[in-house]
Amino acid sequence: MPALRAVLFDLDGVLTPTAELHMRAWERLFAPFCAVRGLTPYSGADYFAHIDGKPRYDGVATFLASRGVELAWGDAADEPGEGTVCALGNRKDVIVNAMFTEEGIAPYPGSVRFLDDVTAAGAEVAVVSSSRNTPTVLAAAGLADRFAVVVDGNVAAREGLAGKPDPATYLRAAELVGVPAARCVVVEDALSGVQAGSAGAFGLVLGVDRGVGADALREHGADVVVADLAELRADVLDRPARVTGADA
């Protein structure tokens, strides 16, 4: 039996290249918002610093705070617009869903190969994502039937789970696949995600560097960093768990 028995995958930027699409959607939202108000222009660095990996509304609020802008939180039912944090988040959702339709989604080949390898080796697998669009993305990428356990933004809202960098969603996924956290691998491309893996005392935190930087991923909790999951095989499950005395 390998030391590590489950692999918990983030979605955007790990299984699918939708992180890049999300980056452009956020730019479409915030570039004009900042221009009209005379704020410091939005840049790609803002995505990694304030938004990447977080629940949508938290990302809006964190970015606004970086520009000294205060808006009422509002409600998830708010119409897409600019009057509240939720309205802005809902506007971003409209933008990104239009982009899904226009551009389509394909998974990273290296990630699919790694998924195939660990599944063939007997590992349990799950998707853990802050996105409420996770079911749409998995279906469009042809991966929906590969994951019996999905803990996404919808599940987090329904069950009252805190978003990344809190480890709650990953811990819930470990519970659902029936493997102790100390025997699970967390696979993440976002700083908030590797922080969640480290905070949750998971067996191994794999960072995938899609632009945030290998050093930054390590500094925030990644044990191993790769540029693409094609660099890894199922023998990663044989690595000793980072947590000693872990429950078998």
Automatic annotation (TrEMBL):
<dbReference type="InterPro" id="IPR023198">
    <property type="entry name" value="PGP-like_dom2"/>
</dbReference>
<dbReference type="GO" id="GO:0046872">
    <property type="term" value="F:metal ion binding"/>
</dbReference>
<comment type="similarity">
    <text>Belongs to the HAD-like hydrolase superfamily. CbbY/CbbZ/Gph/YieH family.</text>
</comment>
<dbReference type="InterPro" id="IPR036412">
    <property type="entry name" value="HAD-like_sf"/>
</dbReference>
<protein>
    <recommendedName>
        <fullName>Beta-phosphoglucomutase</fullName>
        <ecNumber>5.4.2.6</ecNumber>
    </recommendedName>
</protein>
<keyword id="KW-0460">Magnesium</keyword>
<keyword id="KW-0378">Hydrolase</keyword>
<dbReference type="InterPro" id="IPR051600">
    <property type="entry name" value="Beta-PGM-like"/>
</dbReference>
<keyword id="KW-0479">Metal-binding</keyword>
<keyword id="KW-0119">Carbohydrate metabolism</keyword>
<dbReference type="InterPro" id="IPR023214">
    <property type="entry name" value="HAD_sf"/>
</dbReference>
<dbReference type="Pfam" id="PF00702">
    <property type="entry name" value="Hydrolase"/>
</dbReference>
<dbReference type="InterPro" id="IPR010976">
    <property type="entry name" value="B-phosphoglucomutase_hydrolase"/>
</dbReference>
<dbReference type="InterPro" id="IPR006439">
    <property type="entry name" value="HAD-SF_hydro_IA"/>
</dbReference>
<dbReference type="GO" id="GO:0016787">
    <property type="term" value="F:hydrolase activity"/>
</dbReference>
<dbReference type="GO" id="GO:0008801">
    <property type="term" value="F:beta-phosphoglucomutase activity"/>
</dbReference>
<keyword id="KW-0597">Phosphoprotein</keyword>
<keyword id="KW-0413">Isomerase</keyword>
